[in-house]
Amino acid sequence: MRTIFIVPTEATSMAIRDALRGITAPTVTPFDDGAIDEADLTDLLAHLEDGGIDAVFPCGTTGEFPSLTTEEQRRIVAATVDRVDVPVVAGAAATSVADTVTAIDRAAEAGADAAAIVAPYFTTANAPDGNRRFFEAVLDDAALPVLLYNIPQCTGQRIEPETVAAVAERGVIPSDEVRPPLVGVDDAGTDAIAAALETTLEVGRQ
């Protein structure tokens, strides 16, 4: 189980905020003979909705996004949007600002409601201030509301609570009321970030 900490902001749609307070289900990516199996994806999503989930999360860690082409990611998000009546939080992880923004653009064009991004991985010696600047640069051009996805066991670094606080302060209220805000933190870590965030942010489950 993971925890989603919700950044309180009136700029976020109530549908997203309500969904993140509930259960968000990361989805696997079904393949058959090297191709996306949309029939199995349909069955999976129907099963999850029948079970009462509040949102779905395609193209995340569970969906094995690093092994997918950009076109496969687009197809999966679009197919998921077409098949569910709950909000879709699309994985949009990448190691550069430009690639992350492009992934968010693809998710927005496919109809996703929000995107989840990670700290740059592979280059794992980033100082917290570098990660803050990365996230702020993404938020400046993001086409969707954004969740920060803290998964240090995969990225090699955690998103520090101080980084979250700084990004949230900048991203909660867009200066022109057009830029999508930071809506929360998807925390898959096992350390102090949870305790630090739980004291100030609302909590949902995944």
Automatic annotation (TrEMBL):
GO cellular component, one term: cytosol
Recorded GO MF terms: 2-dehydro-3-deoxy-phosphogluconate aldolase activity; 4-hydroxy-tetrahydrodipicolinate synthase activity
Residues spanning the membrane: none
Organism this protein belongs to: Natrinema pellirubrum (strain DSM 15624 / CIP 106293 / JCM 10476 / NCIMB 786 / 157)
Matches recorded under InterPro entries: Aldolase_TIM, DapA-like, Schiff_base-form_aldolases_CS
Protein's name according to its UniProt entry: Dihydrodipicolinate synthase
Entry keywords, A to Z: Lyase, Schiff base
Highest taxon of the lineage: Archaea
